[in-house]
């Protein structure tokens, strides 16, 4: 496919294998093309019919999964994590997997499953995660985070979009393909339970199980689309550096009247240090932060500018009157091609009810940077830590530690996998998807590529408004069902194009 002189449009319309198109166009012309096209149309109808008949059950099953509080960050949910892993395993077996297993790690277990129809066929490895972010603050939820409800055509629950609702589409797609006897690929699943805490044990699992995970492409649904009317495919995810800073002043909390004004207040110092991380144009001031950033070409920026964007709607959705960001870049650029630095949490001193006049001994902050291709998470983390240590004034001490990080990842749009995904989205949505850079991070991507030697394709069906990691996370029913419809198309195109 890398020769690339077959028009992409042609491939997706005809839904036919590329090598055949070349032969058939020169040899037999329209006749066989029509045959392939009708063959695929039959499958498409069979898949749609199957989904239509079973759609309520598909949803009920997802709601069951969403009711398990699989919060990986909380030790109190350790048993729930296992319950959830077992439920995922069972769902794979019910969907038609030949085998599925819950594989323990020193942290939360990984679920592996596979359906191998023919070793000669291409193999697709689906990666997803069954763990979720903590649900706090609970009081901001309109319904229980683990009591999934349907309101206005949306599934409200923690994990509905990130990522249970999304990986479960692949489980149901497997069921559709198996039940209609129309598998054209082997499908493997690696559904982990530690994505939201940085996948600390997945790397070891991947390097120890290269044969088990051997595949021709890794398919991930853990990202969003621009909109249902403007389907898009993420071609990159940002990397992540994450640190926690602790500022210590006096050796104990002090009376703010007796000592205030004479002793450095760690909260004031920390606030000054944090404020110094951006300049007046909201550029990041940490020395060397932008050193390895590869500037996007004007062509790439022009392409991004064509993606539909309604700034008023964007602001309205967020309840803000103005946007904030690096000068000289659009919103899409700020969240896609530019690295950023954000405060994720800050605390210190007295935060309980009423007042307490204290000059605290300590202040803390959690700080993370999103990185773009060619930046290194390890290097940036070291720069962040060095920066905070270097600017600390006399009178306080700084302790800065690293939390999880991950490298940025880009997928080439001339790969068979990308083209198959684009063709599948076009089949389902009737429109060519726009390639976009996602703002989030999936730290395991670069590791997958280096360990398994295959490319990743992101076929996300969420929306930016899904409130991932926030109260009232939701996933639209229509996206859930549309995703299930799209995935079998991907397998078929990928098999055809791989021949
Ligand atoms: Zn996720």
Overview of this protein structure:
By secondary structure, this protein is of the alpha/beta class. It is built from 14 helices and 20 strands. It has helices spanning 8-14, 18-26, 30-66, 78-95, 164-179, 202-208, 266-275, 298-306, 311-318, 331-334, 377-390, 416-429, 444-452, 477-498, and strands at residues 99-103, 110-115, 123-129, 149-151, 154-156, 186-192, 217-220, 224-225, 232-237, 239-248, 254-255, 340-348, 358-359, 362-371, 397-402, 409-410, 434-437, 456-458, 462-463, 474-476. A six-stranded mixed β-sheet has the order 1-2-6-3-7-18, with helices on both faces. Strands 12-14-10-15 form a four-stranded antiparallel β-sheet, with helices on one face. The chain has a three-stranded antiparallel β-sheet with strand order 4-5-20. A hairpin with a 2-residue loop joins strand 4 (149-151) and strand 5. Helix 12 crosses helix 14. Zinc ion binds at residues 129, 162-163, 195, 222.
Q: How many angstroms separate the termini?
A: 9 Å
Counting DSSP E segments of at least 2 residues, the number of strands comes to: 20
Indicate the overall shape. globular
Low-confidence stretches at least 5 residues in length (pLDDT < 50)? Answer: 1-36
Strand content: 15-25%
**Which structural class should the secondary elements be placed in?**
alpha/beta
Classify the helix fraction into a percent range: 25-40%
Biggest β-sheet: count, sense, barrel? 6 strands, mixed
Q: Strand sequence of the main sheet, in spatial order?
A: 1-2-6-3-7-18
Number of H/I helices: 14
- Mean of residue pLDDT values: 90
Ligand types: zinc ion
The rounded Rg comes to 25 Å
């Amino acid at each position: 496919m890398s020769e690339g002189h077959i028009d992409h449009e042609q491939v997706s319309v005809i839904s036919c294998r590329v090598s055949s198109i070349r032969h058939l166009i020169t040899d037999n012309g329209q006749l066989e093309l029509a045959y392939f096209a009708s063959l695929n149309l039959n499958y498409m109808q069979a898949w749609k019919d199957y989904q239509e008949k079973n759609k309520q059950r598909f949803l009920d099953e997802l709601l069951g999964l969403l009711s398990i509080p699989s919060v990986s960050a909380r030790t109190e949910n350790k048993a729930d994590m296992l319950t959830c892993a077992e439920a995922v395993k069972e769902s794979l077996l019910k969907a038609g997997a030949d085998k599925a297993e819950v594989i323990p790690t020193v942290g939360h277990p990984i679920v592996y499953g596979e359906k191998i129809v023919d070793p000669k066929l291409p193999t697709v490895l689906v990666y997803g995660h069954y763990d979720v972010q903590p649900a706090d603050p609970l009081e901001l939820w309109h319904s229980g985070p683990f009591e999934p409800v349907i309101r206005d055509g949306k599934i409200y629950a923690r994990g509905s979009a990130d990522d249970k609702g999304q990986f479960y589409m692949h489980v149901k797609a497997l069921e559709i393909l198996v039940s209609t006897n129309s598998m054209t690929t082997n499908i493997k699943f690696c559904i982990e339970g530690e994505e939201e805490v940085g996948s600390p044990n997945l790397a070891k699992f991947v390097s120890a199980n290269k044969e088990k995970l051997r595949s021709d492409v890794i398919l991930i649904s853990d990202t969003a689309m621009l909109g249902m009317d403007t389907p898009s495919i993420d071609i990159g995810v940002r990397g992540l550096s994450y640190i926690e800073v602790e500022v210590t002043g006096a050796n104990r909390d002090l009376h703010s009247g007796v000592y205030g004004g004479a002793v450095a207040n760690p909260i004031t110092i920390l606030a000054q240090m944090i404020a110094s991380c951006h300049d007046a144009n909201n550029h990041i001031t940490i020395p060397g932060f932008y050193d390895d950033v590869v500037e996007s070409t004007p062509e790439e920026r022009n392409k991004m500018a064509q993606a539909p964007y309604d700034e008023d709607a964007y602001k309205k959705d967020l309840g803000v009157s103005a946007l904030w960001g690096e000068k000289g870049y659009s919103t899409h650029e700020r969240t896609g091609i530019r690295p950023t630095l954000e405060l994720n949490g800050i605390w210190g001193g007295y935060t309980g009810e009423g007042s307490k006049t204290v000059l605290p001994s300590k202040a803390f902050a959690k700080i993370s940077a999103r990185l773009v291709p060619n930046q290194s998470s390890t290097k940036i983390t070291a720069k962040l830590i060095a920066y905070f240590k270097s600017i600390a004034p006399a009178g306080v001490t700084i302790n800065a530690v690293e939390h999880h990080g991950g490298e940025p990842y880009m997928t080439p749009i001339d790969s068979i996998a990308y083209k198959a995904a684009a063709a599948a989205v076009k089949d389902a949505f009737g429109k060519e998807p726009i390639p976009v850079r996602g703002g989030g991070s999936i730290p395991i991507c670069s590791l997958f590529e280096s360990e398994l030697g295959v490319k990743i394709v992101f076929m996300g069906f969420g929306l930016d408004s899904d409130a991932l990691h926030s109260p009232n996370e939701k996933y639209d029913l229509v996206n859930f069902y549309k995703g299930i419809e799209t995935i079998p198309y991907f397998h078929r195109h990928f098999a055809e194009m791989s021949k």
